[in-house]
Design a protein that fits this description.
The chain is α+β, with helices and mostly antiparallel strands and 663 residues long. The protein has three domains: 257 residues, Beta-galactosidase, Chain A, domain 5 (Distorted Sandwich), CATH 2.70.98; 196 residues, TIM Barrel (Alpha-Beta Barrel), CATH 3.20.20.70; 167 residues, Aldolase class I (TIM Barrel, Alpha-Beta Barrel). It is 17% helix and 35% strand. The strands form eight sheets. Strands 6, 7, 8, 9, 12, 13, 14, 15, 19 and 20 form a ten-stranded antiparallel beta sheet that branches. Helix 7 packs parallel to helix 8. The protein starts with a helix and ends with a strand. It binds 1-deoxynojirimycin and calcium ion (CA).
Length: 663
């Protein structure tokens, strides 16, 4: 009976497949409406939220390479509709369960004159935004083809203020820029718009597969247009039918929490393809890393070599004694001597330097129940890396080790192609899929901008792609700005996990005295809650943690959550985030500020009603200041419940980190 009913709904959908010149679909709550129509023969779309037009008459379509490059006039008709309301469970994440609730329509655009090409546009509208993608069905008029330009536009009605990363800065390691839309240079997505009255829009993409990354340029007034990262020959994408593009997405949020917690991107990716995920475990790692960046040790072999057997075993001991799940070691393998960026074929991913007994270290870690995060810097030489990858991953997993940190330092991939063009995107996918085969999780540095592929391949656990804490070790400008972390969650953070690698307790930097971590210690702690990653590093030398009470917070704080909320934030000023542990009933709270000290009140209404909690509070000391006294913090405890308000005093570039333990 039920089957029959579903069948008749499908039949009605087909009847809708009649020619029309204006067709639309609305969100499940009816507020957001997406309309496709033709304007002078070209397909355009409009998006309204209630009575407000957010996007008006924006272009859809392509310019192809070769003859008859531009898609001519099209006629449009709706060929199907669908809707879904389901809840799925994440392998790891900011929240355990995700609701996927949308209405869908697919519109066929058919060129009216020769060659009569067909492109379908599938639109999904959610209560918090929309996504659409183009598909090119198998057809006589289009077999092999190349895209010269994707014409997708986002035409706004107003010159809103926006937050964006500059496309010309390598590896997305940029500060967020804050300008009107009309003044952007080529920008990355996520591209976040402050729409006034506490509302936000954010443009991004989902499921970037076999395609080039979408960047945005400002064309006229406040119209943004897609600009795909090109191949070295200028082509944007090579394809053959059937073919489909990633989803173009926009969050339409009524407040900053809705912006940060929108799951449109994940919902528009394919479900998890890894059956047994028992080896994919969120966790915290320490590592021989920060002391390399501060030049106490070297990656290369010599008298100051960091990755020695003994040194690594000390880290393993510390991890085992302090509940850290893994140890990262950089510089263990052959290839770091001389100019490794130029001579990347010198890297060997299975052969260690003479003072690093690979077998002994791996067995020692296994005996202590500690995982190794095995570092594979391949300097963007994927040809070389892929020639060794099977052998390397097989070796690592033979010791029951499941984590690899990849490095991609070199602006061009394989000396020729962009990191996030179609070539780079496909090369990286090959690495992730190979890793899954050998039960290896990836922490990808110098990644392509995340677009939710980690839903399908949850072994792709975290990514850099952010101006991370390494810049605080050596950057000539003095280190990351105090406001940086109050911006990150709302631009880059919308795309997925960030391996930012905080955890500094020792703020001295004698080798590079011009540069330093520019936060207080309490802010370092709070960042574990504010910034999401299923793998989090405690990046300081373990010596800095010994005997320090504040390290308890790093030990306690989870990296896998039942639910998460941005309680309050002003991008660029401050952020307060609360999250509930996935494996206990504890809540955690992190508050951070920019260069300005400030006092913040947080209503604890997120706690379970009728329940008392012990709040373990790590706050800035009364004399804390990120420049003159970053180490000063204080610890206190108090009993609270959901009717209480927590008053926090944050120092300059300070923070407050709280664990709420159910009584
Ligand atoms: C850049 C990475 O982001 C960093 O973490 C790593 O230490 C260096 N590359 C060397 O591979
Ligand atoms: Ca980096």
């Amino acid at each position: 009976m039920k089957f029959k009913f579903i069948f008749s709904v499908a039949a009605i959908s087909c009847i809708l497949a009649t020619g029309c010149c204006n067709t639309s679909v609305s969100s499940p709550d009816g507020n957001i409406n997406f309309t496709v129509k033709t304007q002078e023969g070209k397909a355009v779309y409009t998006v309204k939220d209630g009575n407000q037009t957010i996007i008006s008459n924006s272009a859809l379509g392509f310019i192809f390479k070769g003859e008859e490059a531009e898609l001519g006039a099209v006629e449009i008709c709706r060929i199907s509709t669908d809707s879904k309301d389901e809840t799925w469970e994440q392998v790891w994440g900011e929240e355990r369960f995700v609701r996927n609730n949308y209405n869908e329509m697919t519109v066929r655009m058919k060129e009216t004159a020769e060659p009569g090409r067909i492109i379908d546009l599938t639109v999904r509208v959610f209560d918090d935004g929309f996504g659409f993608r183009y598909s090119f069905p198998d057809q006589e008029a289009l077999k092999e083809f190349a895209i010269a330009e994707e014409l997708t536009e986002f035409r706004f009605s107003k010159d809103y203020m926006s937050w964006w990363l500059d496309q010309s800065v390598p590896y997305y390691e940029d500060y967020g820029h804050n300008t009107p839309i009309s003044q952007i240079d080529t920008a990355h997505t996520p591209f976040t718009i402050e729409a006034g009255e506490g509302r936000y829009f954010a443009i991004h993409e989902a499921n970037l597969t076999d395609y080039a990354k979408m960047n945005l340029v400002n064309t006229e007034d406040y119209c943004l247009r897609a600009w795909l990262t090109p191949w070295s020959d200028g082509t944007k994408v090579y394809a053959s039918t059937p073919f489909q593009t990633p989803w173009r997405t926009m969050i339409i949020a009524d407040d900053i929490n809705e912006l940060a917690m929108s799951r449109i991107m994940l919902n528009l990716n394919e479900p998890n393809r890894i059956e047994d995920t028992s080896w994919i475990r969120p966790g915290k790692y320490i590592g021989i890393w920060w002391t390399l960046h501060k030049d106490y040790y070297t990656w290369y072999y010599g008298p100051r070599h960091g990755a020695t057997t003994e040194h690594t075993m000390r880290y393993i001991d510390f991890a085992a004694e302090n509940g850290m799940s893994a140890v990262l070691v950089e510089g263990w393998n052959i290839g770091w001597d001389g100019n490794w960026m130029k001579n990347s074929t010198g890297f060997d991913f299975t052969k260690a330097y003479p003072d690093y007994d690979f077998d002994k270290v791996m067995k020692y870690a296994a005996s202590k129940g500690v995982q190794m995060v095995i570092h594979n810097e391949y300097a963007a030489n994927t040809d070389h890396y892929l020639s060794q990858i099977d052998e390397a991953y097989k070796l690592y997993s033979s010791y029951d080790m499941h984590y690899v940190k990849t490095g991609n330092v070199n602006v061009l991939m394989d000396g020729k192609e962009a990191h996030d063009g179609q070539y780079g995107v496909n090369r990286r996918r090959k690495i992730v899929e190979t890793a899954a085969k050998y039960r290896i999780c990836i922490d990808e540095h110098e990644p392509a901008m995340p677009t939710g592929i980690h839903r399908t391949w949850p072994n792709l656990m975290t990514y850099e792609g952010v101006r991370g804490q390494e810049h605080d070790a050596w950057e000539p400008d003095g280190g990351n700005r105090p406001d940086h972390m109050t911006v990150c969650p709302f631009i880059r953070g919308l795309a997925g996990p960030m391996d930012y690698t905080f955890g500094t307790f020792d703020f001295s930097n004698p080798n590079y005295p011009f540069c330093r971590v520019r936060t207080t210690l309490a802010k370092q702690l709070a960042q574990y809650v504010v910034i999401y990653s299923p793998l989090q590093m405690a990046s300081d030398d373990p010596k800095a943690y010994e005997g320090v009470k504040a390290f308890d917070f790093i030990k306690d704080v989870p990296c896998d959550w039942h639910e998460s909320r941005v309680i309050d934030a002003v991008i660029g000023d401050y952020t307060i985030t609360a999250r509930r542990d996935r494996n206990s009933e504890d809540w955690y709270l992190g508050a951070i500020t920019d260069e300005n000290a400030r006092e913040l009140n947080v209503a604890l209404s997120f706690l379970e009603p009728g329940t008392e909690y012990i709040a373990q509070i790590y706050s800035d000391g009364p004399d804390a200041d990120y420049e003159s006294n970053p180490e000063s913090y204080s610890y206190s405890e108090m009993t609270v419940d959901q009717n209480d308000t927590l008053h926090m005093k944050l120092a300059t570039s300070g923070g407050c980190a709280v664990r709420f333990v159910k009584k």
